Amino acid sequence: MHTKTLTELKAGLANGDYSSRELTEHFLARIKQYDGELNSFITVTEEQALAQADAADQAIAAGQSNLLTGLPIAHKDIFCTEGVRTSCGSKMLDTFIAPYTATVVEKMAAQGAVMLGKTNMDEFAMGSSNETSFYGAVKNPWDLERVPGGSSGGAAACLGARLAPAATGTDTGGSIRQPAALNNITGLKPTYGRVSRWGMIAFASSLDQAGPMGQSAEDCALMLQAMAGHDHRDSTSLNEKVDDYLGALKEDISGLTIGIPEEFFPDTLDGAIADNSRAAIRELEKLGAKVVSVSLPSIKLSVPAYYVIAPAEASSNLSRFDGVRFGHRCDEPQDLEDLYKRSRSEGFGDEVKRRILVGTYALSAGYYDAYYRRAQQVRRLIRDDFARAFEKVDVLMGPTAPETAFKLGAKKDDPVSMYMADVFTIGVNLAGLPALSMPTGFINGLPTGTQVIGNYFREGQILNVAHKYQQVTDWHRQLPTFGGEQ
Amino acid sequence: MAIDSKVVAQVAHLARLKVDQADTDALSSRLNDILAMVDQLQQADVADVAPMAHPLDVTQPLREDEVSEPNIRDKAMAIAPAAEEGCFLVPRVIE
């Protein structure tokens, strides 16, 4: 069952080939068997999953199936789930039982999804390797000595090893797309505001966006259909009509114009990474797409702009963790200041502290103009570059990540080199655009991914481009030896 | 703009983080690596460019002033590290 896509499992359930309980038990058994080594889950919610599966089986029997009825899905541990620990990968929230449920989780449950558990992640989604988690590093199922990427590393690894047929993730600077590329799965970051952020623990509020991670573009379309939509509880959620994403997969792509930003293929890029993405673009040309070269001159400043804006917003968002209302509290505080300082210092890990300090510094008196204001100005230049490109092209393509999965520990003491893992993904977050990563071949047995970036609200179009590619290639159906037996 | 361990200590206080004396040198060195990378922003020509807070230039929406959320006070108090009679407990702040 685990070698089937979510879309195929949906058909299997409708057909009566198996029940949701059988399906759910199958994935729970796989998690038990393999996750000791992979560490992709923080919490497995077996009891709730089986109860949801039984309810789904009753709904199916009564002919009352919804979009996701009976389909097991793993949620990133950044989404609040009432009654279930929501740790965000941090000691700070190790004992935090959320008092309410995030909109994304609620909407998927309303469509009948079964929650398998909560996946591991970099602490507060700050990282590109899943090594900053309080619960330990996640391993890449394609090579257990390598990282799965991050911050949605647990989601990508459990999906890569088929311990879950689908997962949710969040993407602030590439946290869905980069791990998707490193684990041979498909992951989509929607337009900023397309999916509600309510109940999703905030990292950088102007950049954070939740999205689907699946085995195929079709699976992502199915999940996004359930996730997207306006939410009055999130004031940044956009009140725009939700497209028919599965319907969009039926459209013809001949005549589509693909723009290749020269900045996504710099001279310094690993030739094999470039070759895999160029080969993917050629496949789409064979299907009738036209290819033109474009330039995004300001995108070279996306990493520096991001590392002002994201830490600045994080330093503000994370000020809520004060040891008073929820989360970790130090023992025997001397006074209020000691309570704040020790609770925060004990509760946060090193990378989170570094980002809080960078953000606090960038926002402090005398530095605001030089850092934050300037970064917001550069952000506009980056957005305008994309807007000019989209006057000429329908989608933009290039590699998702500059390298394949690196060894655990390789970049641990060098934050700046770690930040460069997101060099091709961050610009999209600053501009608020939708983008996905799809599997496009291997280098020395390790997966690579190619990014498809669309204009605002064109999730349907980029999903369709990936879907057409996946109908003529089978990279996305390749499984790792670890846990991936047929 | 390089920062030394004195600035790190000031910023840590602003952020209500406790940084051990033994760690400040290593920490300032890491932070300086990050700030050196961020300093590339100084290359950009941003004269007359308005700062951008939202990619779609959306403004804050307004809604009717109506109660829309249930009262979950008891649930919210139940997860506090220390609470009594509906109040959060902290060390004494007024002598």
What's the gist of this structure?
Chain A has 486 residues and is α/β, with parallel strands linked by helices. Chain A has a domain at 6-256 and 472-477: Alpha-Beta Complex (Amidase signature (AS) enzymes), CATH 3.90.1300.10. Chain A has helices at residues 6-15, 20-38, 46-61, 103-110, 153-160, 177-182, 217-227, 245-248, 271-286, 302-317, 336-347, 350-363, 369-390, 415-419, 426-431, 459-472, and strands spanning 41-44, 72-76, 114-119, 167-170, 186-189, 210-214, 257-261, 290-294, 395-399, 435-443, 446-454.
N-to-C span of chain B:
42 Å
- Report the principal-axis shape of chain A: globular
- Our count of helices of chain A gives 16
- H/E series of chain A, N to C? HHEHEHEHEHEEHHEHEHHHHEHHEEH
Q: What class, by secondary structure content of chain B? A: mainly alpha
Give the helix proportion of chain B (percent range). 25-40%
Please state how the strands of the largest beta sheet of chain A are arranged side by side: 4-6-5-10-11-9-7-8
Biggest interface in this structure?
Answer: A-B, 75 and 54 residues
- Kindly report the CATH topology of the domain at 6-256 and 472-477 in chain A: Amidase signature (AS) enzymes
As a percent range, the share of helical residues of chain A equals 25-40%
From the spread of the alpha carbons, the general shape of chain B counts as flat
Using the 3D structure, state the CATH architecture of the domain at 6-256 and 472-477 in chain A. Alpha-Beta Complex
Sheet bearing the most strands of chain B, described?
2 strands, antiparallel
Q: Mind telling me the C-alpha Rg of chain A? A: 21 Å
Query: What is the CATH C-level name of the domain at 6-256 and 472-477 in chain A?
Result: Alpha Beta
Largest sheet of chain A: 8 strands, mixed
Quaternary state reads heterodimer
Strand fraction of chain B = under 5%
Q: Strand share of the residues of chain A?
A: 5-15%
β-strand number of chain B = 2
What does this structure look like?
- The complex is a heterodimer of chains A (486) and B (95).
- Chain A has a domain at 6-256 and 472-477: Amidase signature (AS) enzymes (Alpha-Beta Complex), CATH 3.90.1300.
- In chain A, 38% of the residues lie in helices and 13% in strands.
- Chain A has 16 helices and eleven strands.
- Chain A has helices at residues 6-15, 20-38, 46-61, 103-110, 153-160, 177-182, 217-227, 245-248, 271-286, 302-317, 336-347, 350-363, 369-390, 415-419, 426-431, 459-472; strands at residues 41-44, 72-76, 114-119, 167-170, 186-189, 210-214, 257-261, 290-294, 395-399, 435-443, 446-454.
- In chain A, the strands form two sheets. Chain A has an eight-stranded mixed sheet with strand order 4-6-5-10-11-9-7-8. Chain A has a three-stranded mixed sheet with strand order 1-3-2.
- In chain A, helix 4 links the parallel strand 2 (72-76) and strand 3 (114-119).
- Chain A is globular, with a radius of gyration of 21 Å.
- By secondary structure, chain B is mainly alpha-helical.
- Chain B has a domain at 5-43.
- Chain B contains three helices and two strands; from the N terminus they run H-H-H-E-E.
- In chain B, a hairpin with a 2-residue loop joins strand 1 and strand 2 (87-88).
- The chains are: A alpha/beta (486), B mainly alpha (95).
- At the A-B interface, helix 10, helix 11, helix 12, helix 13 and helix 14 of A face helix 1, helix 2 and helix 3 of B.
